[in-house]
Amino acid sequence: MSGILRNSRGFTLIEVIIAAVILFAALVIGAVAHRASVRVIEKSAAVIAVSDALPSVVEDIKTELLNRKIKGSGRYGPDITYEWSAESTKSSPNILSEFSETTSGMEYGRFDVVMDTVTVKLTRTSYGREHVFPYEYQELVCLENAQAARLKKMPPMMNGASP
User: Which among 47, 53, 90, 104 is least surrounded, fewest beta carbons within 10 Å?
Assistant: First the structure.
């Protein structure tokens, strides 16, 4: 009986060190995998938030383009900011009518149609990290011709007499 007890005294120091190295390696691999998955989740959340904001941002930019601003910035919600700039790529002067999204009908007059290339940089900040998303699109802007606008501002003639 004493021979059996003498051979089973427990683990040797080398076995304990090998077990500790294997355990430490498994913990490091698990931590790295967890951090990578957290980054993927953060990036996915940023993509979803920016995709949700993009239609409103494009509509705001369209309003600014109608006022002939060529760059600007803004905020959507508490964590998304954007900067944009536009460059006119094509223009057609003296178009006689346009379709109005407001009235769902044709508006007649003299219009200048401009194709703008808009570059937007959306930035989402959450938990101290910034995710930047570039976006570029083309916007067709229909502007009332300056000459037609001046004619509308002139006072009407009374009985053929000039003012």
Answer: 104
Helices (H), the chain: 2-7, 13-66, 146-153
The dihedral through the CA atoms of 151, 113, 143, 102 has a sign that is positive
Confidence of residue 66 (pLDDT cuts 50, 70, 90): confident
Quick one: CA dihedral 43, 45, 48, 50, positive or negative? negative
Let me know if residue 1 belongs to a domain.
no
> For 105, left (φ over 0), alpha (ψ -120 to 50), or beta?
beta
Residue 98, C-beta contacts closer than 8 angstroms, at least 6 positions apart: 106, 107, 111, 113, 142
pLDDT tens, position by position, 105-115: 776 666 778 88
Whether 163 is in a domain gets the answer: no
62 pLDDT above the threshold of 60? yes
Among 88, 95, 159, 92, residue whose Cα is nearest residue 117: 88
> Terminal CA-to-CA distance of the chain, rounded, Å?
129
**Overall domain count for the chain:** 1
Domain hosting 109: range is: 10-153
Within a domain: 160: no
